[in-house]
Amino acid sequence: MDNKDKIGMFDSGVGGLTVMRQVQKLLPNESIIYFGDTARVPYGEKSRDTIISYSKEIAFFLLEQGIKVLVIACNTAASACSGNRLQQIFNIPVISVIDPAVQRAVEVTKSGRIAVLATRGTVKSGAYQQEITKRLPQATVFPIACPLLVPLVEERMVDHPATRLIVKEYLKPLRDYNVDTLLLGCTHYPLLSEMIQAEIDDQITIVDSATTCAIEVQKQLLIHQLNTEKTKPDYHFYVSDDPENFRLNGQFFLGHPIHKVHSSIEQLISR
Ligand code: DGL
């Protein structure tokens, strides 16, 4: 593989593979290197400073592997690093999963009333709220923290009555909020989008941050003339904990088999 030929992306664990799945669909020629910080997942309950320092470590690691763009696929990491924090350090395009989702949400909303489902960390950071009102000052944003959804999806209970019950509970406030747009602000939630759609009013539009992020990656590659014509892409997976665990769980998120996963723990620790 040529140097600086890959899309680099990272997440706290397997969840970001929902973003990678969409990127693979849109950009089947692109090679991708994915980092899952499985030793330190979940990020959703950690402090902002901790997440920023993890994100920087991972970004440097990926840069050393020769990437041409960096995708922050984790909503919690992207919200901690909001305000272009990583873009200021690196001289390659940095794409945060948050911005394209926000852009889409403000385009589709008519009433300006937007709900955001996310982890506690993302909600607490206020990043979605700030970015939405920056683009649409008259918007009213209703963040809903859904801490139980990540473990349920990781248990693959995406079609389970217990999950439906919890989804219903989290979505209860929507009755009063009267939103017309619902943003899925967490890597895991696209796998619940059918269930969520079934529980909300038909008039509410769902914005899936994995899909909007992939569209933005495609756009940025074009803008910076970084597309590749390569017909056979390479996919590399690195994790900070047990590679086999990631390989087995990751396939569910990615939608197809993962063959090899590298452990990067030595490189990260030695930084
Ligand atoms: N990847 C995280 C996100 O998108 C969810 C998992 C975690 O809490 O680390 O917010």
Indicate the topology.
Elements: E1 6-11, H1 17-26, E2 31-36, H2 48-64, E3 67-72, H3 75-80, E4 94-96, H4 98-108, E5 113-118, H5 120-125, H6 127-135, E6 140-145, H7 149-154, H8 161-171, H9 174-177, E7 181-185, H10 193-199, E8 205-208, H11 209-223, E9 235-239, H12 243-254, E10 262-263, H13 265-269
Parallel strand pairs: 1-2, 1-3, 2-9, 3-4, 5-6, 5-7, 7-8, 9-10
The structure holds D-glutamic acid.
The site of D-glutamic acid has 17 residues, from helix 3.
What structural class do you assign from the helix and strand content? alpha/beta
| Spatial order of strands in the largest sheet | 4-3-1-2-9-10
Total number of beta strands: 10
Q: Bound compounds, please?
A: D-glutamic acid
Largest sheet: 6 strands, parallel
